[in-house]
Design brief:
transcription regulation, Arc Repressor Mutant, subunit A, DNA-binding, DNA-binding transcription factor activity, globular, about 65% helix, MarR family transcriptional regulator, three-stranded antiparallel beta sheet, mainly alpha
Amino acid sequence: MDAYETINDILVNLFYEILELEEKAIITDEFRDISNNDMHIIEAIGLGDDSTMSAVARKLKITAGSLTTSMNSLVKKGYAERRRCDQDRRVVYISLTDKGRKAYFHHERFHRQMTNAAIANLNEGELPLLAKTLNGLAVFFRNYEEDQERMAD
């Protein structure tokens, strides 16, 4: 197998493996009442108290309605809470409860382990090349849909 085929094989399999393993690693007995999607919403809310529904929906690239449905579930299960802004009742702030913070740190630990595994065999001089390579891949993903639409025109 040449280098191109090897890299293609690694990328294709890596995405499937990450999705599968992340779900197994994150949704443990302690957090069995939430989904992997819920965990990513918890991550997007973050540890601050000033996240708004609209900001988190933009961050996740979902509609406010979709986020509302997920937030209803997270609030009911005790992972998150919401409160309206006193000055503008249309603005809804969301934050994590203690239970939500615990889930956040659990998810963060998995990501730290994954990142450490990616850099474990690299020396300091190789880290910028890995970062440049992964950034190029991220740019490809961010622009893919837009590029496809341009090509269709």
